[in-house]
């Protein structure tokens, strides 16, 4: 099934996602569909809320979308520990045409479950650490816009309103 990415200001993006209690065949299919959606949209990470599902699941593949060699699916991921600090320029599939400089932890230790219900522990640094933090932020209802200054957020809000007005005019 082809999934659509929810874009700001969709309400699901600001909600805290629900813990997954059971891994069902439907959940496994959703994970596959999310990976396909991520790759089709030239992304390296995607959280379930970004496709309208307010549940705690993410997919990440920093080799994507070209190679698609290191797909990680995490259910109920949590950042157990982090160290260092790094500034990174980030974009987001739910924030079209937005990029911002974000302070992140340089290294993270993340735990979660795989699609078979096995516990996974990941020690990550570099792009993988940034992607994991970014996607886990989505599960908390935190967007890049929440991590940039008020001016940058305000400018993006104006851009979104202008785009919405344009769509309404074209749709009439």
UniProtKB/TrEMBL annotation:
Annotated catalytic residues: 135
Cofactor binding note of this UniProt entry: Binds 1 Fe(2+) ion.
Keyword annotations: Hydrolase, Iron, Metal-binding, Protein biosynthesis
Record's signal peptide: none
InterPro entries recorded: Peptide_deformylase, Peptide_deformylase_sf
Keyword hit for Protein biosynthesis: yes
EC numbers on record: 3.5.1.88
Name of the protein in question: Peptide deformylase
Lineage: Bacteria, Pseudomonadati, Thermodesulfobacteriota, Desulfovibrionia, Desulfovibrionales
